[in-house]
Structure formats: C-alpha cells, structure tokens
Write a structure and sequence with these properties.
67 residues; 2 domains
Length: 67
C-alpha cells in the first residue's frame, strides 16, 4: 500500500474552497436590483436630484419600484 500523505487532500480542499468563492462572487454579481451598490430607489433619487426627471415622474416610478 502506498502512502501519499496529506498534500493531495489539502490541494483538493483548497480547490473546492476556490470554486466556492468564485461561485459566491458570481451569484453576488447577478443579484437583481443592484448596480454599483445602488438600489433602484437610490438610482431614482439620484436622477430626481440631478433634475433628469420631474417630481411626478419620480413618484410614479417610485410606485412602480415598490409594487
């Protein structure tokens, strides 16, 4: 019987941890409603503050987001 030591097992564990981290990061990136750390409401508030949309448009869009 050959003895391979723990080196192979440790490499597999590290490989699996790396895969888990990659999957986690991909899933975090794919979360809906977040872009550059901003929620849709944050983006809407920013557009209103910049004057890109009127108060009426802001209120209408805010209701759409909340629905």
């Amino acid at each position: 019987m050959m003895y391979y030591g723990y080196g192979g097992h440790i490499m597999w564990v590290l490989f699996l941890i790396l895969i888990a981290v990659i999957v986690y990061l991909i899933l975090q990136n794919m979360r809906p409603g977040k872009k550059n750390g901003q929620s849709p409401l944050d983006i809407l508030k920013s557009r209103y503050a910049k004057g890109e949309i009127t108060k009426e448009e802001f209120e209408r869009m805010k209701k759409d987001i909340d629905a």
